[in-house]
Amino acid sequence: MSQSISDIKLVKFYYRHYKLGPQDFCREYGGNVDGLNKFLTGNYDSLAARDALRAFWERFNTNQLMKSQAGDDFDDDDDEFNSTFGGDSMLSPIKGSGLTSPMSSSSGSTNTTNSGQITGNRSFSSLAEATANNTNNGKPESKRVRNLLKTYYGPGIGEGSDSSSMNDPLNIDGPSFNLNNYFDSIVRTSTLNQLIQKDNQMVSEIRTLDGDMKTLVYDNYTKFINATDIIKKMKTNVENMEEGMALLSKNMDLITNCSEKINSTLSVRRDRIDQLSGLQKLLQKLQFLTALPSSLNHCLAMQAYNQAVRYYNSNSGILKQYSHIPSFQNIQNECDSIMKTMKDKLYERLSSLSTSQTDCVESAEVLMDLLEPVELVRSKYLESRKHHTITLLENLEKKSVEHITDYIKELNANFLSEYSYNITSYKSLFINRLDGSDSKKERQHSLLQLEEFSKDLFNKYLNIAKSKLSSFKDPIEKIIALEIINSDVSKLGSELSSHEKITNIINSTVHDQIDFYFDNLQKTIKEHIYQLNTTLNEKRDEVLEGHTLQELSDATSKAIINDIILLFANLKPFFLPTETQFLSSYQDTIFTKIQVKLQQFFLFLVNIHFLEYLDIIATTPNREQFSGRFLLVLSSICLYIENKGITLVVQLMSEFITVAKQGSKKELNVFSFNAPDLCKRIRETGLQILNVFTRLSSQKLDKILKKGLESVPNWLVLKEPRDVRPVIDIYLEEILKFQNEISKLLPVVNHLHSVKSHSRTGSGNGTNTGVNTSNNTPDSHRRNPSSNTNTTLFEKKVDHVDYNTLSVLIAIVKLSLKSFNESLRLKTFGTNGCHQIQIDLHYLKLSLYDMFGSNSFDNLLQECETTVTERCIDPLPLAKSIVTKICETKINKKKNNENENQ
Amino acid sequence: MFNTNTSNISTNVYGLSQKTRALSHITAEADVNRFLVGTTALREENEIALLEAKEGEGVRCISIFPHPKEIHSITSCPFDASLFFSVYNTSGGGSNNSNNDNNNTNNDFKSSLWRINESMDSIDELFELKGHTGTIKPIICDPSGSNNFIISLDDSNIRLWSKIDDQNEPTVVKQFGNLSKLSVGSINPNISNQLATANDVNIKGWDFRNAKETFSMDKAHSEQIRDIDFNPNKPYYLLSAGDDCKLKIWDTRQTKDPVKIFSGHNHWIWSAKFNRYHDQLIITSSSDNTVKLWNLYSLSSAVNSENNISNSNEQQSPNEQQQQTQQPIKQKKNKRNEDQLIKTYEEHEDSVYNISWSSSNFLFASLSYDGRFVVNNVPKEYSDILSYI
User: Fold this and answer.
1) What is the number of CB-based contacts under 8 A between chain A and chain B?
2) pLDDT at A796
3) Considering CB atoms only, which of A618, A871, A873 is closest to B100?
4) Which run of H or E residues covers position A784?
5) Among the partner residues B42, B222, B349, nearest to A788 by beta-carbon distance
6) Which chain B positions have a beta carbon within 8 Å of A870's beta carbon?
7) Quick check: pTM over 0.80?
């Protein structure tokens, strides 16, 4: 039960009932003040304090009990009872209450008040209950005990509180039962039957009571017998034990004697042994200390730096402590110098190129152990690693590359392993080991340095990879190489912000590659065209034979188209599914880039590239380098591209886009590709080139006519014209040459009659028309000298050249006639000169109609005629018959010539 | 009867009744834009019209003077507005018919100095520049405006004439050249005594006081050169244009290649002129019936003076300054800094043989063969911005 008094309760009890300080308490009950204070604040370790508290508790309870009993005593004036009871209850209040009950009951019959005593007594178990409360407010616990006793000892016992029923003399079970009274009352109050019944009842009750008593007696008897048996057994056993005990005590005595003997003999030397063993230890230490330099040297020689540091560090304290002793000082100095050389060596090793990674890490570690400044070691370490890695990279960079994938593999194997090792070792060396108070700052610093270091190296690595990649043009290999880089680097983990860089390198490589394709395409196209020009220049007029010119043009066009096809073939690998799909995240940007490039390319091709030749030609002083023919071929190439090339390209592009879409996982932003617009543009470009060609060609014709005009020294004085000037024939021949050349490349439209055939078959017709128009025109022009509207119409038409031989030729001739008109305006003619020109013009008109079957030049010729009459001092009309006659003879003569030639 | 056209209709076109080739801006009149236009009619009566163009009011004819023979070129004297040279062809025409058979020895072309008399109704010939053979090219006066000398060209020779005054006939100081097919010349206003001439496809530079050749550009064009003009503000730049329809700009220090080529005309370029003040502006006229205005910013003096914008801004009137600061200059800056064709003028319906800037900075006149005289302005976005450079 005493265990059940918890420590908390003890403490509570103390606080409630002890009025003085802890010092007084300790003085009274023992235990020290500290222990008690601790105990009071909840630390229940101190046994002394607990014992003291418990003692206080017991004493208090006892005092309480004694006080209450003393109070009772004063009421009862029964000293004897009080003393016996008080002594009894000194044992333990609860036990006491448990034990006193039967005792009090046994003596209870003598004193009626003792039951109240008991209840008062019992109430002490609640410790702090008021003592005056000796009536029916006992705890359920005490009630239970009382019932127990009641069943055992029968009713009437312990029911002291029920004083009314107890003091009833008629109650047969009550203690104050009075037989006579009972009998009298029964006899008096009961009928006979009732009496008889009562008698019967009582007889049977008596019988059962009697039986009960008998069984009780038997029970007690058997118990008693058992007890005697057990006592008998105990007696015998104790007798045996006594012998063993005697033996034991004897042996014990022996042992005591021996130990006393040993003790006494050894006691003399014990101190000395202690002294000696201490000395030996000291000597060993000293020996180690003296041997320290040599062992350090040994370690140094063995390169067992770790061990050396361990020796040194474990002993440096002692050495420092005894440094006032010279010999120790010497040792320390020696050690220090050795350690210094070691440090130097370590630093050397750290910064040496040949040091392996592990050695390097070890060196750094040892140096740190030697309490070298972290920053120094760190910077040295980083420096050396950097140097090392850079030389590694440099070596790799110098290496000639045969296969980019192999190279990248090698590069990755060398660099990345080194790189990652460096980083992990650095982390273990400088970042994870720090534990000082300033470690946070230091760590940050270390991390910063590491980042810088790694960034630098990684950039170098990427640059090398990039430069090597850029020297390779095979897309598939390149992509594989990129994939390797991507996967290898991603293995390194995201510890570094290198992912971005990888993205960069991939992007830039891919973009470089795309740029390269497009640049290359432009270059090759340029080459094709230059080649075309050189062939044209080399072969000169040979190309006019057969279909050479056409073939040449087609070949160049096809070459250009093939280049574009090749471009798409080259671009496809970017979108073919790769193993890791690493490109897929970039595919949308790549695709956009390609599309932009494509657009640019077509713009380049269409708008710039071909037109560039015009500029080149314009700026080239050496006119022979680019002939007009070259321009013609160029424009025919434009035509080819427009007709066949663009559709092919568009088809290829849509194929490409589908491939790209399949390959890519992301949504691709497809630009709309305006093929008709492209066609239109290239057509315009071609036409522009054709225009320049037209102008160039017309200049040739210009010159012929101009020379013809200038070959006559004075147009004022001239003989009467007899024939068309030969220059007109030359002019016509030149036109034929142009026609021949142009018709090789540009489509011939029906309107254009082949000159030779037509001149034979349809000359009559042509002549007639010519005559008819010539009938009208001279007169009308004389009437209306300024025909401005016609000229304007002409000029607007000049710009409009189309892709056919007729249109180009007409444009050429028109331009040359325009120039002729200009030349005429600068001259002054006499009558004959004017007539000569009129005849020439008429012949021209007939011949041109013959050639082209159209009157498109009539206006211009008319213009010329107007000019010449204007510029004539004395314009006399020329008889039409003369004009016709001269022209017809001329034509016939020409025909005959041709026939003869054939 | 000719004065019917002088009615005050605000138009930038004036029509002459005859064919015309000759046009000269009267440079001596700095305040008004006056031009002399000469007709080129072989058989009819020829005349010289004195035209005035006012901005916002169009062109009006001040006076018309009869001129004997067809006029091939007019050069107004820069030192006297009433004096001008004309080059004329005496071979045709009704009055001198008798000369036809006799004077066929290449001296049909004559050049004379004329004075417009004070009543502004006729002209008097002061003297003739004699001794030319073949076609006489436009007379060249001193661009600085002095009357110290003039230069004349015929088909083969360059003549430097002495001081011009009313009384004495000038004499030939120097005669040199001996080239073939001389066509046009230009005096460099920035380098004294420097003359450039074009003969056929070649350009030559001369020191005309010493009659020495200073530079030459052989085969400057693929066809005949019809006009050359020195940049009025930058000493070494020369333009040339001709029958190859190209306008080329040359640096006379590096004559191998042109520094700039413009092409755009569809037929021969007959005349090409730098703007006197804003030399990035060039006008060309062509027998494709158009006049084109070019912007040659990169080689102009505007590039150098760009730094002085702020200075010149301060000099301007406050009104103008306010206007310009309001304008988004930057946007237009790019455009006008590009060397490109600014505009094609298509008012003419026949070959435009002559063209001239006027006293107003941005006004120019062009003359086509059919007698149409047109005055045009540089587009506003160029003239506005350029006005403060």
Assistant:
1) 70
2) 45
3) A873
4) none
5) B349
6) 19, 42
7) no
- Place A300 in a pLDDT band, splitting at 50, 70 and 90: confident
**CB atoms < 10 A from the CB of B150, how many?**
23
Q: Is A828 on the interface with B (CB under 8 A)?
A: yes
Can you tell me the distance from the alpha carbon of A360 to that of A366, in angstroms, rounded to the nearest whole number? 10
* More confident site: A809 or A771: A809
Task: Check CB contact under 8 Å for B222 and A788.
Answer: no
Tell me if A714 and B245 make a contact (CB, 8 A cut-off): no
- DSSP class per residue in A418-463: HHHHHHHHHIIIIISS--STTHHHHHHHHHHHHHHHHHHHHHHHHH
DSSP-assigned letter for residue B300: S
Give the separation between CA A499 and CA A437, rounded to whole angstroms: 34
A873 touches chain B (CB under 8 A): yes
More confident position, A698 or A502? A698
Strand partners, B376: B364
Domains of chain B: 2-386 (2.130.10.10)
pLDDT value for A495: 54
**A582-641 tens-digit pLDDT:** 566 666 677 777 777 777 777 776 666 666 676 666 655 555 556 677 777 877 887 787
Which pair of tokens denotes residue B32?
């008004």
Query: How many Å lie between the alpha carbon of A708 and the closest alpha carbon of chain B?
Result: 16
% of chain A beyond a pLDDT of 70: 69
A 313-352 residues with CB < 8 A to B: none
Say whether A795 and B42 touch across the interface (CB within 8 A): no
**Which of A323-332, B29-38, B90-99 is the most confident on average?**
B29-38
pLDDT in tens, A640-691: 877 777 778 778 777 777 777 776 666 666 666 677 777 777 778 788 888 8
The residues facing B36 across adjacent strands are: B24, B50
The confidence band for B328, taking pLDDT boundaries of 50, 70 and 90, is very low
Distance (Å) from the alpha carbon of B205 to chain A's nearest alpha carbon: 20
B348 to chain A: closest CA residue: A792
A655 is written with which tokens? 């194929």
Residue with tokens 């006519």: A705
Residues ≥6 apart with Cβ < 8 Å to A887: A724, A767, A770, A839, A842, A843, A846
Domain ranges, ordered by start, for chain A: 7-169, 190-244, 283-497, 499-673, 695-901
Smallest CA–CA distance, residue A621 to chain B, in Å, is 7
Shortest CA distance from A799: residue in chain B: B266
Nearest to A556 by CA among A458, A653, A637, A459: A637
Are B239 and B231 contacting, i.e. CB atoms less than 8 angstroms apart? yes
pLDDT in tens, B150-199: 899 988 889 999 888 777 788 888 888 888 888 999 999 988 889 999 98
Look at residues A347, A353, A442, A356 and name the one whose alpha carbon lies nearest to residue A391: A353
